[in-house]
Automatic annotation (TrEMBL):
Belongs to the EamA transporter family. It is a multi-pass membrane protein. It comes from the Bacteria. This is EamA family transporter.
Amino acid sequence: MSDTRKSHLDALSISILLACCLFWGFQQVLVKATVTEVAPVFQAFVRFAIASAAVLLWCLWRGVPVSPRHESRAALWGGLLAGALFAGEFACIYIGLQYTQASRLTVFLYCAPFWVALILPRFVAGEGLRGWQWVGLAVAFVGAALALGDGLWHPAVQTQPLAWLGDLLGLAAGLMWALTTVVIRSTPVGRIAPAKQLLYQVGMSTAVLPFLSLALGETWSLQLSGFAWTSLLLQSLVGAFASYLAWMWMLAHYNATKMSSFVFLTPVFALLFGAFWLGETITPGLLAALTLVAVGIIVVNRRPRMAAGA
């Protein structure tokens, strides 16, 4: 089967990516505002359970086969592997947050584009970056790190003796996120419907996260305020359903390495929403970070000059 993915991002893809990153940044603040009422891993479980039902209904409405009998064994195993990695990513995130600061873990998590850029070219031709594109990716990462820098080297970090474990778990989460992308791009599961790919991921998370929540001793309760339910529905239907489905569709049509560079916008958006919602200060460093991220993305997605006579 020929690869019909576009090698460069067009206006449609950039608009979708910006919308996804904008909501993902908002979602981080939303989760933080909700965690005082709903335990974090239980919150993730509820989100993915609702999203699983939404994706299943979408598949039935669109006529997407959901039975494993409709795909090859390789696609089935690829889907299960992608789902396990997706669930593992969130397990690392939530366990890691028990040991290190959220800002530190987030930086390690958003190293995922580096993992994608390093690993994916070994499996899929044409996904590598040229030298100047690596520079752009590095500039974007520096911007995201700068935006989060106020919390990274705070003296309070030294009071957490197991912070290194949380950092490693954050790095592992970013690696699992990248490996999920690699599996989808390099195995037959990448050729099934995006909604079915997403169903593997949210379905596996729905199956795994409750056991993690119980192991952590979290309290389960659905006697929640109107705000908490609104938060959970937004996380489920907009975040885990609509935005992830859009991301899966994008993976099927565009260059995954260049798409991944956009995720650097998510922590920046999170800080912006935190400033406007939680009253956090927007510093000159944050404005500089936004500039670096924008420049990095432009460099990564710059079209190469066509050779004369081409």
